[in-house]
Amino acid sequence: MTARVVILGGGFSGAIAALHLARAAEAPLAIDIVEPRPLLGGGVAYSAPDARHRINVPAARMSAYSDDMGHFDRWLRQRDVAATDPECEIPGGHLFPARREFGRYLDEQVRAQAAIRHVRRRAVSAAPRPGVGYVATLDDGSRLEADILVIAASHPAPAVPSVLAEALADDPRLIADPWKEGALSDLDPDARVLIMGTGLTMADIVASLAGAGHRGPIAAFSRRGLLPRGHALDATQLVGDFASPPSRTALALLRRIRAEVADASRQGRAWQAVLDAVRRDGRLVWQALPIEEKRRLLRHLRAFWDVHRYRMAPQPEAELLRLGEQGQLQVLAARLVGIEAGPDGILAKLRLRRTGAVADRPVDAVILATGPDHDRLLQRSPPLAALAEAGRLRGDPLGLGLEVDGISRAIGADGRGDSSLWVAGPLARGTFGELMGLPQVLIHAEDVAKAVARELRERQDWPVSAAATMFPLW
Q1: Mean pLDDT score of the chain, rounded to an integer?
Q2: pLDDT beyond 90 at 252
Q3: Are strands 409-411 and 134-138 parallel, antiparallel or unpaired?
Q4: End-to-end distance of the chain based on CA atoms, in angstroms?
Q5: Which residues pair with 136 in a beta bridge?
Q6: Whole-prediction pTM value?
Q7: Which residues contact 167 (CB under 8 A, 6 or more apart)?
Q8: Per residue in 166-204, pLDDT tens?
Q9: What is the strand order of the sheet 148-151 is part of?
């Protein structure tokens, strides 16, 4: 019999899970990836058409295979990508190509597997079927039967803050989705732009505006006004051990990291080497913290972790520095407390963090660059909402995504993991912690593939290739 696996979402996590499941199986297997975008593996991040949107780590640290992290770098060099994009190679020989190149690379790897079919539709519902398995309903009315369903959905879109929604509900001067094709193309080059958010999305927006010849002033703000940090590309040897034993409180973890950074600095070593060691040990560190300490860490330290962990590529970093020195770009620590829309512009009222004063800022456009709206994950995704209503899954207690068990099976209303329903990727981070960037999200998706292959083998006495046992399960 042919086992059928349906994966909802064909971004990085869904593509990697499918790729490694197909490689592991030695018996008949059909994998359907439901993904409306043309590239398998592209997702939001790696489908960006703008060549100025660069991968955020060197290509040598990105791959579809955790046991061969140089695979993507070799793929780029074999195709001589630097010949058509000379800015992708920086001093030292490191490659930071356009993110769409990684999407093309992933698509090529996945399509090489005959067991995988790309279903270019959108799932509108999912439900358990009688016995074992699930059925997914697509936007054209067709249905896909699945012995195992894997949820690899991307993050939900940012929520428009109520203060913006009330004042600029249908106003084209509010750009709520900067990733939408052509979202920035109608901006006047002299427009005064206000960006809500100061993370990597903001850096991409500024790079696009600068590349299009934007001349008007740009202001970006967030509550702390923190910018993503840059890389120390020569700091390849990690510094510190945070797993033996892991800290039991957020404060103890913070003190431990600070002490290690200070010690590394005295030895002339970069803080990035310490933070990368924390990332390496992230799963054990996270799982050792009691839930209240996890909440404390998220509340007080998450913003600082994000800007140190998710770093800018050198090209956009240089662009932001240049625009800042020229006075065209201003970064503020502030929050939006009011907004007034008129025919000649928008007046944004910002409460400055340092002084508490309210500053009026006249602008011509507001661009949203805040994080995903996980608070309404189940409500905003029809398939997830249907599965939650059926009692087959639920949100995790930290509000980061979906609750899963130690091998990433979805936990339903009965509190038990479902061996026919799995979660691959960042929506499982409430259980696993660091699941946003490579290599952690890669390793997790590979592990999900091996666990699903093992489940199918136990059901059907499947043989599994050596690829499935290359890395131990959790």
Answers
A1: 91
A2: yes
A3: unpaired
A4: 29
A5: 126, 144
A6: 0.91
A7: 339, 340, 341, 346
A8: 889 889 999 988 888 888 988 999 999 999 999 999 999
A9: 116-119, 29-34, 3-8, 148-151, 417-423, 409-411
Amino acid at site 191: A
Domains of the chain are 3-156+373-469 (3.50.50.60), 162-229+311-368 (3.50.50.60), 250-309 (no CATH)
Nearest to 391 by CA among 409, 406, 411: 411
E strands along 377-434, which residues?
409-411, 417-423
What are the strands, taking DSSP E only, across 314-375?
Answer: 329-342, 345-352, 358-363, 365-368
Six-digit token string for 4: 């059928």
Q: Which helix (H) or strand (E) holds 126?
A: strand 123-128
Comparing CA positions, the residue from 444, 411, 449, 410 lying closest to residue 426 is: 444
CB-count burial class (<10 Å; 0-12, 13-18, 19+) for 346: buried
What b-and-e string marks burial along 313-337, b requiring 16 or more CB atoms within 10 Å of the CB? bbbbbebbeebeeeebbebbebbbe
Lowest mean pLDDT among 156-160, 275-279, 313-317: 156-160
Phi, psi of 426 (to 5 degrees): -60, -25
DSSP 8-state code for residue 401: S
Q: Which are the contacts of 322, defined by CB distance < 8 A and separation ≥ 6?
A: none
Confidence (pLDDT) at 467: 38
Rounded to the nearest 5 percent, the helix, strand and coil shares of the chain are 40, 20, 40
